[in-house]
Design goal:
The radius of gyration is 22 Å and the shape is globular. The chain is α/β, with parallel strands linked by helices. Strands 4-5-13-10-11-12 form a 6-stranded mixed β-sheet, sandwiched between helices. α5 packs across α9, α10 crosses α11 and α11 packs across α13. The chain has a domain of 206 residues: Rossmann fold (3-Layer(aba) Sandwich), CATH 3.40.50. The protein starts with 10 loop residues before the first strand and ends with a helix. It is 39% helix and 14% strand.
Length: 451
């Protein structure tokens, strides 16, 4: 690091609207005095004392190594994330470092020459939520070590947040309480917090109703709130943008497309990119696209009115269940990020989501429906001429497709309500006779792969 005295990296909570309102990161506080969200702010003057080339070299040297906890894709950037925490209190499963998949064949079919998918689902609990939860749970462990009276951590979830919280809390030995909307998440997502020993409640409401409950228990009953309105989560999630640029040898792509529900991921992506610009690691910004399901599209509706008005909606059921959110907590941060990044908001219908997943899967991917939302949005923007054929486009795949097997089974068995599947591929049932199998096999090969 830089010469001279040992650097003193610091970070704190700060109001979005009043820079004079600050809180230490070990204070149990989620909103500013004016009711708005807080943000984590870093001492950039101190960080700037280290030249950009040294930051790049440090991050490269730590990657995939076993020096605790710096081998993690998040904690390898500790100075930019949570600089003052004791390494002994870090709770990490070596999250991050997910692969950047060159979707060459799928991109060619779409008409894109340089399409990539950041496969955040290739993580411990199968989603990008691990990036934020390692930071939040580590800070909770630090707070408990400092004598803070925290009984448990709690979250409302549409699936992936609950999986990440329950796993990291279990690793830390901290009780976790989960609130889920009954019947509105996949079985794979439900069983993850159950298996990790969390206290799981399924409530007769939607995500927004669960969110109201968890905010009450956090304010009244001594539980620590782990949803993305807690700005600590954003500090981990922001590393996905940094990691993408690092994987391109510190070159900025033209576009990053990300699905949006509660919208913490949009502001987190921008925050990581901002730090690279502010600290001189890169000199330009990509454009950001936030993709929403048409059934849960309050940000898209606001975008259509130039963000002059935002109105919560009652989100309707969607295949992309994790983003079935009508009143996103991080709306203000997301709109600010999209304005700064010349952003676009696009939506996808249920049919567009299903077919985007099916087409991409045919090229070797295995996408969750939320990634399908982002892929459908990419296709529509390409058709509209907003994304150009030669642009480098990165789609953030937020979760692993194995969490949504039921969706894929119903697609290929042609039982998805309201969807006339274009690419169904059900298993072919035959008697165990060589001649019958051979004839059917050759017929299928000729039909699917004509010479």
């Amino acid at each position: 690091m830089h010469a001279g005295s040992k650097p003193s990296y610091r970070a704190w909570f700060q109001s979005l609207h009043d820079a004079s309102e600050r809180h230490p990161l070990d204070e149990v506080v989620y909103t500013a005095r004016d009711g708005g969200l807080l943000q984590v702010v870093h001492d950039l003057d101190e960080l700037k004392k280290t030249p950009a080339a040294e930051w790049k070299a440090l991050f490269e040297a730590r990657g995939h190594k076993n020096s605790w906890p710096y081998g993690s894709g998040v904690w390898g950037k500790k100075e930019w994330v949570l600089p003052e925490i004791d390494n002994e209190n870090v709770v990490s499963m070596y999250e991050g470092h997910t692969n950047l998949f060159w979707a060459e064949r799928y991109g060619r079919e779409l008409g894109l020459e340089d399409l990539w998918l950041k496969l955040c689902g290739n993580s411990h609990t199968g989603s990008f939520k691990d990036l934020g939860m390692t930071v939040l749970v580590s800070m909770v462990k630090e707070m408990i070590a400092r004598g803070k009276p925290i009984r448990a951590v709690a979250c409302a979830s549409t699936g992936d947040t609950s999986a990440a919280l329950s796993a990291y809390a279990a690793a830390a030995g901290i009780p976790a309480v989960i609130f889920l909307p009954r019947g509105k998440i996949s079985l794979a997502q439900l069983i993850q917090p159950v298996a990790n020993g969390a206290i799981v409640f399924t409530l007769d409401t939607d995500f927004d109703g669960c969110m109201e409950i968890v905010k009450q228990v956090a304010s009244r009953d001594g539980l620590y709130l782990a949803n993305s309105m807690n700005s600590l989560r954003i500090e981990g999630q922001k590393t996905v943008g940094i990691e993408i640029v690092q994987q391109f040898d510190w070159e900025i792509p033209d576009w990053i497309v990300i699905p949006g529900g509660n919208l913490g991921n949009v502001s987190a992506l921008a925050k990581g990119l901002d730090m690279m610009v502010d600290l001189g690691l890169v000199s330009r910004r990509p454009r950001i696209v936030c993709a929403q399901a048409q059934a849960a599209n309050p940000l898209y509706l606001s975008y259509r009115r130039d963000f002059e008005v935002f109105e919560p909606i009652a989100a309707r059921p969607t295949l992309a269940s994790a983003i079935q959110i009508g009143n996103p907590v991080s709306i203000e941060k997301a709109i600010d990020a999209l304005r700064r990044y010349d952003g676009i908001v696009e939506q996808a219908s249920e049919a567009e989501i299903a077919e985007a997943c099916a087409h991409a899967d045919r090229s070797g991917l295995f996408n969750c429906p939320h990634t399908g939302v982002a892929l459908a949005a990419t296709r529509k923007l390409l058709a509209a001429g907003k994304i150009r054929r030669g642009d480098r486009v990165v789609v953030i795949s937020t979760a692993h497709g194995l969490k949504f097997v039921d969706f894929k089974v119903r697609y290929h068995s042609m039982t998805l309500e309201g969807i006339a599947a274009e690419l169904p591929n059900p298993p072919i049932e035959l008697p165990a006779r060589y001649e019958t199998v051979r004839d059917a096999m050759l017929r299928e090969i000729d039909a699917r792969f004509p010479r």
